Amino acid sequence: MEIAEIAAVPDEATVAALAALWERCGLTRPWNDPTADIRFAAAGPASTVLIGRVAGTVAASVMVGHDGHRGAVYYVAVDPAHGRKGHGRAIMAAAESWLAARGVPKLNLMVRPENAAVAAFYRALGYETEERLVLARRL
Ligand SMILES: CC(C)(COP(=O)(O)OP(=O)(O)OC[C@H]1O[C@@H](n2cnc3c(N)ncnc32)[C@H](O)[C@@H]1OP(=O)(O)O)[C@@H](O)C(=O)NCCC(=O)NCCS
Questions:
Q1: Which of 16, 19, 73, 99 is at 20 to 30 A from 35, Cα to Cα?
Q2: Which stretches make up the N-acetyltransferase domain (predicted)?
């Protein structure tokens, strides 16, 4: 798999391929517009989307960003047709390198407690549970 950073102004085909991948992976939600999320992350200096391609086709992704202190990832996805081949591990390693290159010392991520498979995936990559109360407020 070849991993590359999305262009600051991505072309329509790339945006559509990413949105289709996230749909296949069950990551889209009615209240989020994935194409707007992609353009926002691609344009900003502290965020990007890393795209993994197999034989030229979009097969994996991660949206990665930071607030100057901590990193975060969203839309971590591997096409089910390419699952369990190490592509998830590879795209997360690329996200970690992207953050480390910008001096970000830590990546925080959230997984719904019922999502045992994804928790197992992150644990296999060395992520550990830290007991925190997550507070949020819609703006
Ligand atoms: C989670 C996801 C990204 C994993 O991608 P992947 O390419 O299949 O993962 P890898 O092959 O790199 O797996 C690395 C290790 O993680 C663990 N792992 C991966 N998927 C797992 C699963 N379903 N159950 C248990 N462990 C799993 C294994 O230890 C695996 O190593 P192994 O295959 O040698 O046993 C992929 O399944 C996916 O896109 N899921 C749907 C979208 C999603 O829920 N994303 C997370 C949003 S927070």
A1: 99
A2: 1-139
| 133 belongs to a structural domain | no
CATH (domain of 58)? 3.40.630.30
| Total of domains in the chain | 1
Pocket test for ligand 1, best of 84, 89, 122, 125 (most atoms within 8 A of CB): 84
| Residues in contact with ligand 1 (CB, 6 Å cut-off) | 25, 27, 76-78, 83-89, 111, 117-118, 120-121, 124
* Structure tokens belonging to residue 77: 């996805």
Terminal Cα-to-Cα distance of the chain (whole angstroms): 38
pLDDT digits (tens, 9 = 90+) for 124-138: 999 999 999 999 999
Task: Tell me, yes or no, whether 126 lies in a domain.
Answer: no
